[in-house]
Amino acid sequence: MFVGNEAEPAFTATSGLHGTALVVRASGELDHYHTRVLREEMGRAWGVLPSQLLILDLSALTFCDSSGIGELLQVRHHGLSEGVRVILTGVQGNLARRLNLAGLTQVFEMFPSVAEALEAA
């Protein structure tokens, strides 16, 4: 039994509008146990997408395993099939290394920040 503060969730995904772009923010550990959370948030996001621009803000990710990368590839694939431009922002640390090693830095469109992605879009 916990007394006092509850433990922080290991992974969260939330979305919000920035102009006409929908930004999905992922935070924490995107691993095999938490890909469902991102998948559910993306299901909601695809249903309310106001334009052909979706930004995945990954600046608050602390870890991403191959399951998480698979989920990001699914988002990209869905975007391609729907004509939606999918941009990753804030890719750093563990995720940056994994994407680089897998040769996926050329597959994803990436910007350092949401502001820079919005400016370029």
Descriptive keywords:
alpha/beta; 5 strands; 39% helix; single chain; 121 residues
Overall mean pLDDT stands at 92
Question: N-to-C terminal Cα separation, in Å?
Answer: 48 Å
**Largest sheet: number of strands, sense, barrel closure:** 5 strands, mixed
Low-confidence stretches: none
Shape designation: globular
> Helical segment tally?
4
Helix/strand-derived category reads alpha/beta
How many beta-strand elements? Answer: 5
Biggest sheet: strands side by side, in what order? Answer: 1-2-3-4-5
What sequence of helices (H) and strands (E) makes up the elements? EEHEHEHEH
Task: Characterise this structure.
Helix 1 (35-48) packs parallel to helix 2. The protein has helices at residues 35-48, 66-82, 93-101, 114-120, and strands spanning 11-18, 21-30, 53-64, 85-89, 109-111. The chain is an alpha/beta fold and 121 residues long. The longest helix has 17 residues, at 66-82. A hairpin with a 2-residue loop joins strand 1 (11-18) and strand 2. The model has no long low-confidence stretch (mean pLDDT 92). This is Anti-sigma factor antagonist.
Topology:
Blueprint: E1 11-18, E2 21-30, H1 35-48, E3 53-64, H2 66-82, E4 85-89, H3 93-101, E5 109-111, H4 114-120
Parallel strand pairs: 2-3, 3-4, 4-5
Antiparallel strand pairs: 1-2
Helix pairs in contact: 1-2
Pfam families: STAS (PF01740)
Domain STAS: 22-121
Organism: Streptosporangium amethystogenes subsp. fukuiense
